[in-house]
Amino acid sequence: MADRTSTKSFAARRMREIADPVGHFLTEAFHFLGLFAIGGATVWAAIHAFLGMIAKGHASIEDLLLLFIYLEIGSMVGIYFKTNHMPVRFLIYVGITALTRHLIGFVQHETKPDMGVVILAGATFIMAAAVFVIRHTSFNYPSESRDTVRTD
After folding, report:
1. What phi, psi does 144 have (nearest 5°)?
2. Could you give the residue ranges of the DSSP H alpha helices within 84-146?
């Protein structure tokens, strides 16, 4: 009976020795493919938006904020590519920029601003407070691993 258990254990170890590198390779390949796809789509969208501004003959503040959103997404992809960590702060920055862009458009296009302005401003404040909390906690309670670049 002990002979049979050791054979199963050996077979399981051997199977893991073969499967782990293959699984790691496939995971990394998907990771790189996804990052390049997101990065490429971001560049494509930014170029499309920029060409639209050129065709219009001018750039509004909303257009410029849209370019900043693309810049933040590109930075986020670059940081994730280098460190393999998702920079949560950058996601919040994108949200703050998007809310600001929406707020400016709302104020410019509405004849009489209403409670929507207060809601958008409040949401922007909450996201800014979230950045403060993340920065404060990452500074005062750093992660265990010091070998990676801190992005939060």
Report:
1. -65, -40
2. 88-109, 115-140
pTM to 2 decimal places: 0.73
Mean pLDDT of 118-144: 91
**Three-class secondary structure of residue 12 per DSSP:** helix
Whether the CA torsion 50, 32, 92, 87 is positive or negative: it is negative
Q: Return the structure tokens found at 37.
A: 């796809």
Give me the mean pLDDT over the 79-86 stretch. Answer: 85
Cβ(47)–Cβ(90) below 8 Å:
no
Tokens 């265990």 — which residue?
Answer: 144
88-109 and 61-83 are packed helices; what angle lies between their axes, rounded to 10 degrees? 170
The dihedral built from the CA positions of residue 38, 40, 43 and 46, taken in this order, carries a sign that is negative
Cα separation, 94 vs 79, whole angstroms:
15
User: Quick one: angle between helices 88-109 and 115-140, nearest 10?
Assistant: 160
Q: Are 109 and 71 in contact (CB under 8 A)?
A: no
